[in-house]
Amino acid sequence: MDSVRADKYLWAIRVYKTRSEATDACSGNKVRINSVVAKPSKAVKIGDVLEVHKGPATLTYKVLQLSENRMGAQLVPDYAEDLTPESERAKFHAPRETIVMRRDKGAGRPTKKDRRTLDALMDLLD
Questions:
Q1: What average pLDDT does range 12-36 have in this prediction?
Q2: pTM score above 0.90
Q3: What is the spatial distance between Cα 25 and Cα 82, in angstroms, rounded to a whole number?
Q4: What is the count of structural domains for the chain?
């Protein structure tokens, strides 16, 4: 085996809990292979550097070995070297800012448009 699909590899090394999450991340331009945006079917080869935007941080991995099968957490360092700087890891533990949405009394429930606006605002923070 000289290459593996990007979504399968990210799932196998436990970056994502499910393969569909890995596929969605690749489709959403949150994964780069050697600084190039990767689609789910992009081939991953030994020596490639993967950048994964997950939540507030960007995780970086170097491919050491290939696998299509999910493995235990103890085996992951044999397959992928974690190059993520400590400053990026600290972003996971940083306090999140609280957004207070204010609605006038008697305005009723939020409309679909209000909900979409709120979702767009929350996506900007992630």
A1: 95
A2: no
A3: 19
A4: 1
Task: Give me the phi and psi of 61, to 5 degrees please.
Answer: -135, 145
Angle at 98 between CA 112 and CA 55, to 5 degrees: 80
Let me know if residue 117 belongs to a domain.
no
pLDDT exceeding 70 applies to what percent of the chain? Answer: 94
DSSP, residue by residue, the chain: ---EEHHHHHHHTTSSSSHHHHHHHHHTT-EEETTEE--TT-EE-TT-EEEEEETTEEEEEEE-S--SS---GGGHHHHEEE---HHHHHTTTSPPPP------TT--SPPHHHHHHHHHHHHHH-
Q: Is residue 114 part of a domain?
A: no
Domain that holds residue 43: 4-90
The model's pLDDT over 59-98, given as tens digits with 9 standing for 90+, comes to 999 999 999 999 999 999 999 999 999 988 888 887 766 6
Q: Is residue 25 part of a domain?
A: yes
